[in-house]
């Protein structure tokens, strides 16, 4: 094992401990506060988010709309992750620019940012999976991507459950249904919506929408990229 791989494994151990941690008082209060905020958000906005997530989830499960890159082979972990971090950086720059433009344009265009950002996140995950050598044309590999997505954008209590599934993916994946319609997209979209609502609502506010859009999209893509790296490292070390 190289020094790079040793460092990566140590980081996975620390990250794993964080994922297994029980929800703190702050986590529970934040979840309660977010629930209250959701009640104030217009139904039109909720409908846009829910519809976008439902469409994106089905597209991923069916293997449509997203191009599966050719898996990268015969590369060390260090070489793979150099390419991964470059891709994440590109998506963060692109996403920040897109968030700034839609945030500056007002409410109607700002609402369009939800499906655009979702597509950007999933395309980034497809690219990361391929760089780690995984074939995303495989249905269960696409399910792994959706579990990573949920892990990045869920409450701590939900993260504990998801992490346990990812940690034992080889066994767990064999229990997954072949029928894509049995995927629990409702819980998926509710957790994601709760996670991003506050930041994205501010993006629709005239005057500050552009700045919020840049920061929010950059942070959300950064969070997802970091979780994806750890999740694939966890599989690599097995």
Q: Percent of residues in helical segments?
A: over 70%
Radius of gyration: 18 Å
Query: How many beta-strand runs?
Result: 0
Summarize the main sheet. Answer: none
SSE run: HHHHHHHHHHH
Provide the structure class: mainly alpha
Low-confidence stretches: none
Percent strand: under 5%
**Mean residue pLDDT:** 78
First-to-last CA distance: 13 Å
Oligomeric nature of the chains: single chain
Question: How many structural domains?
Answer: 1
Helical run tally: 11
**What is the global morphology?**
globular
Briefly, what is this?
With 238 residues, this protein is mainly α.
Description:
The structure is a single chain. The protein has one domain. Helix 10 runs antiparallel to helix 11 (209-236). The mean pLDDT is 78. The protein has helices at residues 3-20, 25-40, 43-62, 77-104, 107-111, 113-131, 139-152, 156-167, 169-173, 185-203, 209-236. It is an all-alpha fold. The longest helix has 28 residues, at 77-104.
